[in-house]
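=== Given protein ===
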Amino acid sequence: MTKDMLSMIPTLDNRPSAMGYLSPANPPGKSVSLETNLASADRIISFWESNSSKAMLFQSSRKEASEYLAVVDSLHRLMENLVATHNTSDKLVRAQRLLETSMARLEKEFDRILSANVKPTMAPDDVNSSHGSSDELSTDEDGGSSSDHRRGRSSNADEICEIDMMPLDAVLDLRSIAKRMVANGYGSECVRIYGQTRKSVIEDCLNRIGVERLSASEVQKMEWEILDLKIKNWIRSVRIAVRILFASEKRLCDEIFSGLNNVRDYCFAEVVKGPMMKLLAFAESMATSKKSSERLFRVLDMYETLWELMPDIETVYCQESCASVRTQASTIFVRLGDSAVEIITVFENAIQAENSKTPVPGGTIHPLTGYVMNYLIFLSDYKETLMNITVPNSPSDGQDDELGTRPSTLSARLGWIIINLQCNLDLKSNLYRDVALSNLFLMNNLNYIVSKVKGSKLLGLLGYGWLRKNQGEVRQYAENYERAAWMKALNYLRNEGIHVNGGTSSGLSQRALMDRLNGFDSAIEEAIKKHSAWIVPDLQLREELRISVAEKIIPAYRFFLGRFRKSSESGRHSQIHIKYMPEDLEAHLLDLFHGDSSSLSSSSGRSLKEKGGR
């Protein structure tokens, strides 16, 4: 029992020896046969003491239990009269002895009934199969209706769902005993017995739903796979504990100690304060443990869980004696939010610090890009939660977007994370010796970033202005790639250097044309072989890039072949060999970026025979 509980118990303990201040139930002068009443009480109380080896009082007939309680009530009134009229008589001493004996009996009965009804009528972890508790009104031992009715608000742990922690007849018996014990100054015994018995019941229920006490050091040292499972179980368990187990225990206290507010509050605090602190201790350990990117989503899950439960915690732990529980829950709730912010910073730093020096084959998506974007997509699912957490300003805060509106702190923070990623990718693009492949790598990765944003909640956070800007950058990288990759082959098809004497087609240099054609064949073979091994994983982007390359190469090649054909017809060559026809070349260009570096098929070579009249 806690120190603050012990300090409050004396207010519940007003023994008969200290009852001189009570007003008598019967005014002096009213004829009361003290001896008759004492003798009657002595007879019934002594009977049950002499039969202590037999069944307990409340295991016998209801009539005998009611008779015993009536004797206790009568003895209480008799004590009041004696204190007022004969406070030094032997009768007062005798009455006090009988009252102490009856209280000892009721104390045993109270303990036995509690101990005999330790199992809830419905297991908290099976509550989802329930249809709620009945709404029957409880009645006291005199047959009157009680204002405390048995409620069932829900059949799951999404809101408070009170279950029956013990049978109704046991509740009524305990209430009748508690009423007499408190009235006669034995409230501290009620608190002690109830606290000892019910706390063990609650602890057993928590053990059955998988709650365990873990120190901060144990959480710190635990492997993530194991800790992840324990966090999932904590989220489930704390909902069951607050909304079902503790809420039901509060209702049980309300029903047993109806009208006895102080005793009720102290009993409830004694039973569930410790178990709730045990649950909160795990969340606190997570909030103060090492910060790693993999833990962010579980920390946010725990934060959301407490966010959802805070109104229920305020309701269940509304008593002044449970103020420390409410304060601790609120404190840990804030700490979890702070921990989430710190982990986001750790994640940003990890992006900046990633310095792998091995370029990904074929310029495809870098693993860092996939990891970061998938991480951000998961993070965007917590939009409302993250908006509730105070996120520190990022370097991009305070800058208006293209529409002149200022983005939210969360949007700016996410945008800054992507900027960090892009800066790292720029550095990694320098690992490629080929400028074309470097641009293809940047195109692929930025396109992946854009597609992930476009297909997720990130778009709502970053906005269409961000989307258009980065789509334009993807196109720019594609154009840079095309210039770097295909300009060498295209240069062989240009007009410069193939005319002689500034003449017409008859003045074309046959030698220059042949050199240009051979040079183009070599350049195009090299480019196609190399770029076939490169990768564009996005199907739409791959097809668009293939078509764009073909539209630049094929028309220029057709035009070049046309002039070459005319020059051949007007010259002395009877047969000119053309290795690639435009259709064959186009087929190869439209088969690029699949990651296969096999060479061009020699079967695609064709011969063009000069015929008269062509």
